[in-house]
Amino acid sequence: MENCPWVHRLYSLYTSHPGSNVLLAWFQGNESRDIESTPPQEVGQHCLAAIKSCTTLESLPPIVNVERTQWGINPWTKGSYTFLSKAASGSDFDTLASPLPCESDKEVPALQLMFAGEATHRQFYGTVHGAYLTGVREADRLLECLNDSNSTLLNRY
Length: 157
Ligand SMILES: Cc1cc2nc3c(=O)[nH]c(=O)nc-3n(C[C@H](O)[C@H](O)[C@H](O)COP(=O)(O)OP(=O)(O)OC[C@H]3O[C@@H](n4cnc5c(N)ncnc54)[C@H](O)[C@@H]3O)c2cc1C
Fold this sequence. Notes:
Layout: E1 10-15, E2 23-27, H1 40-53, H2 90-97, H3 128-147, H4 152-156
Antiparallel strand pairs: 1-2
Bound molecules: flavin-adenine dinucleotide.
Family: Belongs to the flavin monoamine oxidase family.
Cofactor: FAD
Main location: cytoplasm
């Protein structure tokens, strides 16, 4: 365990559901990215060692299979949760949520492209309810535009 920084980032361990023999381990911090390039069996062995070191369990059943996420190295996700870095601000969420074309562009009809999803919610980013609320927000935006008699959208349909 000494040579394995990521195992110290284990912050939660529980069965996937009551009575299950599937153990779900959660890791945090930059070190947790190293798990993605660690062979699955090795990940399992380190987890077993961690469990033994902090419980009174003498023996544990052998591991049948280890699955680990690879969201860090996946270019389409680059991680698991939306994270507001020190270089970012709340207004970045509003920028991501802004439909295209932007309001100042009068050449193109409004609302050609709209954005929903947790990463566009300033307060509840990283949550399911945040994602849901952004879907409602964008539907409202569209309805408002369709109900606006001056809307260029309405003239098109
Ligand atoms: C491990 C983990 C645990 C979590 N636990 C909780 C929890 O307990 N409670 C909670 O509230 N939230 C939790 N969350 C967060 C929650 O899951 C997300 O905030 C939520 O699912 C985001 O929804 P979304 O619709 O914005 O995006 P997503 O659910 O990520 O949906 C985006 C979809 O777009 C698809 N996609 C991406 N790119 C393309 C493309 N180019 N073309 C077509 N499709 C594409 C993706 O495949 C995906 O299906 C958790 C997240 C993780 C990772």
